[in-house]
Design brief:
The protein has 403 residues and is of the alpha/beta class. The protein has 18 helices and 12 strands.
Length: 403
């Protein structure tokens, strides 16, 4: 038997690796985040429940988002070994311009509610990492203010068709004059989805000071301090609102929009046009035939029609149908760099991400969005290397198997 003996201090001393104390709590928090899921956990701790649930939740029983994540989780990669992957190229071409990473930051509404730095923080991080950022019609930073704050970025504008067509025309004109590169027309919100978490939380825009929210504020003092001591939340494209998201959608959005309305959009927008919210091959063919430069296969992150199709499953058929005439993007359920790689391998030109960067924003503001980008970049690079792939351009359907 091996003889046992206590190790001496001189033997133990080299093993002691005490980290220097980091006084900044945000730096400590983000250093401990190694996945988007870790950022989600940090965001949940720092954000009032109703705000977190607005980001995290989906429609009705939340079947659509669960299915989308399950499919992505169950994707099987097909790696090839003995290949030189010392250097890998993560860049791609999106609408004729280089993007350093194969994803786009999707439009998300009311971003300054999640964290007071809001859309400008997200756009600055997107610029640093070389990816497009899409400002939502429902944003809390104006078209002009974002353009001034981040003038040299790839700024896209996310557009909904309103009942007030004159107001919609004004938005498109303002975006064009402010130098926005691309219009992203969202078409899957004729009415608002039933966001039951929001209803149960009594969530309104902006958050109301009730007994419930005051109690929740005691558990999240830093969020409320920022909310109460920074510029009031103002909406980028309309004056004010005091109801729920579902009520707001019913008030603003036009449920009579048809394919012919793309001609109206084209009267006011002559740049690249992306149509977001496509959920069938037939609809992809229709909008590309009507002049869309790209389509986004999307069920709105599960936030509209519950039990909707899983967008990533549609990719191969849509790419086959329209991929020679338009770029095809995908979203809904993507939460890691490996998910992004799977989407690109199945034929998407790019993946749109929303919750992933919002979790980072809620966890640590602009630095938190940077951390989300760092995590995604490392995961994409590592997944490519382990697949034996040297560039995004080399990915093909042969690298993945859908469940």
């Amino acid at each position: 038997m091996m003889a046992r003996q206590l190790q001496t201090w001189h033997q133990l001393k080299p093993l002691l690796k005490l980290k220097p104390f980091e006084p900044d709590p945000t730096t400590r928090r983000l250093a401990n985040a190694h996945t988007i899921g870790d950022l989600r956990t940090a965001a949940r701790r720092r954000t009032p429940r109703s705000i977190f649930d607005y980001v995290d939740g989906a429609a009705e029983a939340e079947v659509s988002i669960k299915r989308a994540r399950r499919v992505l989780r169950d994707v099987e990669f097909q790696p090839s070994v003995l290949r030189d992957v010392g250097t890998v190229d993560l860049s791609t071409q999106i609408l004729g311009r280089r993007s350093e990473l194969p994803y786009v930051f999707a439009p998300t509404g009311f971003t300054r509610m999640m964290q007071h730095e809001g859309e400008i923080a997200v756009a600055r991080s997107a610029r640093r990492f070389g990816v497009p950022y899409t400002l939502s019609t429902m944003g809390t930073t104006s078209i002009e203010d974002l353009a001034v704050a981040v003038p040299d970025a790839r700024n896209w504008f996310g557009f909904y068709v309103w009942k007030d067509r004159a107001a919609g025309e004004d938005l498109m004109t303002r975006a064009r004059e402010a130098g926005y590169e691309t219009l992203v027309l969202t078409v899957d919100v004729p009415v608002g989805g039933a966001r039951l978490r929001d209803n149960r939380n009594g969530f309104t825009i902006p958050p109301a000071l009730t007994a419930k929210t005051v109690l929740d504020g005691a558990l999240h003092p830093s969020w409320w301090l920022n909310f109460l001591t920074t510029d009031p939340i103002r909406f980028a494209t309309f004056d004010s609102w005091g109801g729920t998201i579902e009520e707001l959608a019913a008030h603003l959005f036009d449920p009579t929009v048809e394919l012919s309305d793309l001609e109206w959009v084209r009267e006011f927008w002559d740049g690249p046009l992306v149509v977001k919210g496509i959920q069938t091959v037939a609809d992809a063919e229709r909008v590309v035939g009507a002049g869309a430069d790209a389509v986004v296969l999307s069920n709105h992150g599960g936030r509209q029609l519950d039990r909707a199709p899983v967008p990533v499953r549609l990719l191969p058929d849509v790419v086959q149908a329209v991929g020679d005439r338009a770029e095809v993007y995908v979203d809904s359920g993507f939460m890691s760099g490996a998910d992004v790689v799977a989407g690109i391998a199945l034929g998407a030109r790019a993946v749109l991400l929303g919750r992933a960067y919002l979790y980072g924003l809620m966890a640590g503001g602009e630095r938190g969005v940077d951390r989300a980008n760092e995590i995604l970049t490392a995961e994409i690079r590592r997944t490519l290397q382990l697949l034996g792939v040297r560039s995004i351009a080399e990915l093909t359907p042969a690298h993945v198997t859908l469940p």
